[in-house]
Specification:
Blueprint: E1 9-14, E2 23-28, E3 34-39, H1 52-55, E4 71-72, E5 81-82, H2 85-103, E6 108-112, H3 118-132, E7 137-139, H4 146-156, E8 174-177, H5 181-184, H6 186-199, E9 203-206, H7 212-216, E10 219-221, H8 228-241, H9 247-253, E11 254-255, H10 257-264, H11 271-278, H12 282-294, E12 299-302, H13 304-307, H14 312-325, E13 335-338, H15 345-351, E14 356-357, E15 361-362, H16 366-376, H17 391-399, E16 405-409, H18 413-416, H19 420-429, E17 432-437, E18 450-453, E19 462-465, E20 470-474, H20 487-495, H21 510-521, H22 540-546, E21 549-550, E22 593-594, E23 613-618, H23 634-639, E24 644-647, H24 649-655, E25 662-666, E26 671-678, E27 686-690, E28 717-723
Parallel strand pairs: 6-7, 6-16, 8-9, 8-12, 9-10, 11-22, 12-13, 16-17, 17-18, 23-27, 24-26
Antiparallel strand pairs: 1-2, 2-3, 4-5, 4-18, 14-15, 19-20, 20-21, 23-28, 24-27, 25-26, 25-28
Helix pairs in contact: 3-20, 3-21, 4-14, 8-11, 8-12, 8-14, 11-12, 17-19
The protein binds iron/sulfur cluster.
């Protein structure tokens, strides 16, 4: 802890790790060096609190491995040679054009992240869609929240979480699916815990593992991995059979009521039949169904336990069904709240992702293409007409030779993707790879031809959107390290090398890009309605003053009327709208929400004689993603220095394995040697390994994809354990 008297100046910013969106003040000493961080007491999100990652975030700036200058080499196994920015960028632009001229525009792909600032996503999207013109552009967010996006779109007609953290303070019942808040999102957990301590609502946790959140629950349902849809259908069965559904809400505001009722009242979803498949006792299913339906208000949250599955999108849509059937959407305390992963996963969803165009607009929609082409002043025919490949489809396309060149921005697939032995082979096949990252020792950089050193968060300026649609500001607190450059600068400079394709205007500053995005957010989108994603009333100064503003936040005239002709509410308080759909009007063709029919075919990889253990992966509180940052921060790494495997003591005894012994874990994809931690947190036929570490659990995980979201089933695969010589 640095004594506060050593701090000469505090600067306001926002944490750059998870999607909670905590407001931070970072302290600089009188030489301008960052020496400490603290939570901002006036911020609605965190009210002065930070988790260990936020508290130590200032240690990032001079941590080992930071990129100091651009690097280049002809072949990935040769030594890098330092170069200057012009040469690195000219070479990259030339290589992209050569590959596209030879193999077609879609032979080049771009994969970004959920870690950049929103203005950077918007600028990259403009460069990729409007100039490079490839169809294959995605973010690593496909690994974490694509199923939530897909489920929201199918149910409500658009992405965007309808609720907020403030709902914890109003709810009468909370059900958490596959979400371990205390380790993944510690400050959201703190908000939940404070609210529960005040009002003592029942907390139901659905998770195969006895996570820290499960230990805090009133009811823990240790579900069979990948069977959440069975549990939810069975709960809906109880609700419809016992007349507990909110029929008035359903009839007024939902499509497909008859079809959903006919599906879930089938005998196979009766708790006495469903219990075998989902592993939850029939009486427990009835208890939670009644508790949820009879609560004044009820809400559901979920994270990767739902999203990272071949049933991820269906799982999300079915959680939405649960809330529509109980009339719990758009009410204080009644909502479907996806707790998303990275700090700005929402920003990439909103302003540039694989679905294509800014403001939740779709490439495949002609009106959307025309709107954006007109706004950017290019020919709409330049855009591809269809959504391209997701990140999880891009690597197989490299294997088949369909994709020859790749630009990776702040993402590390050599550690984060499932089945990393396969990813390694794909990387070796690329004709050209450019890696843009704050750290030159990121594992994936082993395979690059050009490396762009990027600045870290507080060396840049721009916005994040957090889980609850709150736009937060990152203020530039430090000059860029060595010859690193902000990602915004890299994208806008690269755009100058593609003007012969489309000479688009790119603002010079992030604030200029934000002003452009505000204008764009006033324009109509699908269905001819004004979209909810309207930020036209915001500005950097307003965001800083309010410590974050939730969209929609429309520009209004002196009388409080929306200036863009929107029929939706024009006036708002200074912090934006906490909830979507409180008027029960949804962005679908008839304004009603869609009840989605979710049947269940169990295609999970199941334990068997050869691979008898369920293998699950997840996070620890000290680390973020692939440890490119937290692995270099003293205390984070000291507290969690090595991978380990949680194993049930009874199973270990049967195999003659002791606490802290090393074992070999093998799946159909690969193997890893890992240290055993004996714990009752996992069932006798299950093991758990944190995913943060290179060459560990993702050597084994399964690349099977959800058919709607293309998100991988990281959490449901099978493995066997072998004792090894401890020497
Ligand atoms: Fe940062 Fe998330 Fe921790 Fe808040 S909870 S300090 S946003 S890592």
């Amino acid at each position: 802890v640095i004594p506060e008297k050593k701090v000469a100046e505090w600067k306001y910013t926002t944490c750059n790790y998870c999607s909670t969106g905590c407001s931070i003040e970072i302290g600089l000493d009188d030489t301008g060096k960052l020496v400490t961080s603290r939570g901002h007491a006036g911020a609605d999100v965190n009210r002065g609190k930070l988790c260990i990652k936020g508290l130590l975030e200032h240690e990032l700036f001079e941590s080992p491995g930071r990129g100091t200058q651009p690097l280049m080499r002809d072949k990935f196994h040769e030594e890098f040679k330092p170069t200057d920015w012009d040469t690195a960028m000219d070479t990259t632009a030339t290589k992209i054009k050569e590959i596209q001229d030879k193999y077609g525009r879609d032979s080049f792909a771009v994969v970004s992240t959920g870690q950049l600032l929103t203005e950077e996503f918007y600028t990259l999207g403009k460069l990729v869609r409007g100039q490079i013109g490839t169809n294959n552009y995605d973010g690593n967010t496909t690994l974490c929240m694509a199923s939530a996006v897909s489920g929201y779109k199918r149910s409500f007609g658009a992405d965007g979480a309808p609720g907020c953290y403030g709902d914890f303070e109003h709810t009468d019942c909370l059900m958490a699916f596959g979400s371990n808040l205390p380790e993944q999102h510690p400050i959201i957990y703190w908000r939940l815990k404070e609210a529960k301590e005040k009002r003592n609502f029942p907390l139901i946790v659905v998770d195969p593992r006895v996570t820290m959140l499960a230990q805090f629950a009133d009811i823990h349902l240790p579900i069979t991995p990948g069977t959440d849809c069975v549990l939810i259908n069975s709960m809906l069965h109880v609700m419809f059979k016992e007349g507990l559904e909110d029929r008035a809400y359903l009839e007024a505001h939902c499509n497909n009521l008859e079809e959903l009722e006919a599906l879930v009242t089938q005998d196979k979803w009766a708790p006495e039949h469903a219990q075998k498949e989902c592993g939850i006792d029939e009486d427990r299913i009835r208890t939670v169904a009644r508790l949820y339906a009879k609560a004044g208000t009820a809400m559901s949250i979920w994270t990767m336990g739902i999203n990272q599955s071949t049933h991820g999108s269906d799982g999300v849509a079915n959680i939405n069904n649960l809330n529509l059937c109980t009339g719990n959407i758009g009410k204080p305390g009644g909502t479907s709240l996806s707790i998303t992963g990275q700090c700005n996963a929402m920003g990439t969803r909103e302003w540039s992702s694989c679905s294509g165009l800014p403001g939740y607009r779709a490439l495949e929609n002609e009106n959307d293409r025309d709107t954006i082409a007109d706004f950017w002043k290019i020919d709409p025919e330049f855009f591809p007409k269809q959504r391209g490949l997701c990140q999880t489809d891009i690597f197989p396309a490299i294997e088949t030779g369909e994709i020859k060149g790749l630009w990776l921005v702040a993402t590390n697939p050599m550690t984060s993707m499932p089945n990393t032995p396969r990813i390694r082979k794909a990387m070796e096949k690329l004709e050209f790879l450019v890696v843009q990252d704050c750290y030159e020792d990121v594992e994936t950089n082993q395979y690059s031809h050009v490396y762009f050193p990027a600045s870290v968060w507080a060396e840049k300026e721009g916005c994040h959107t957090n889980t609850e649609r709150r736009v937060n500001l990152i203020r530039n607190a430090m000059p860029a390290y060595a010859d690193s450059k902000p990602d915004f600068w890299i994208f806008k400079e690269m755009a100058k090398r593609f003007t012969e394709r489309n000479d688009i205007h790119f603002p010079e500053t992030p604030e200029g890009a934000f002003e452009e995005m505000k204008e764009l957010s006033k324009l109509p989108g699908n269905y001819g309605q004004q979209r909810n994603l309207d930020i036209s009333g915001m500005s950097y100064d307003k965001i800083e003053a309010a410590r974050g503003i939730q969209w929609p936040y429309r520009e209004v005239d002196a009388e409080g009327n929306s200036t863009n002709g929107s029929k939706l509410k024009g006036q708002h308080d200074l912090k934006g709208d906490p909830r979507l759909y409180s008027d029960a009007i949804f962005p679908t063709p008839n304004g009603k929400a869609n009840l989605i029919l979710v049947d269940f075919v169990n295609n999970n990889e199941q334990p068997c004689d050869e691979y008898p253990f369920w293998l699950n992966s997840g996070r620890v509180v000290e680390h973020f993603h692939t440890r490119t940052r937290t692995g270099k921060i003293g205390n984070c790494n000291k507290f969690s220095p090595t991978p380990y495997m949680e194993m049930n003591p009874d199973a270990a005894e049967e195999l003659g394995i002791k606490h802290q012994e090393y074992v070999r874990l093998t799946s159909r994809r690969g193997d890893a040697v890992v240290m055993v931690q004996l714990t009752q947190r996992v069932a006798r036929n299950a093991v758990f390994i944190p995913f943060h570490f290179h060459d560990c659990v993702n050597r084994l995980t399964l690349g099977l994809l959800d058919p709607y979201s293309r998100q991988p089933a990281f959490k449901q695969c099978s493995a066997r354990i072998e004792k090894i010589d401890q020497a």
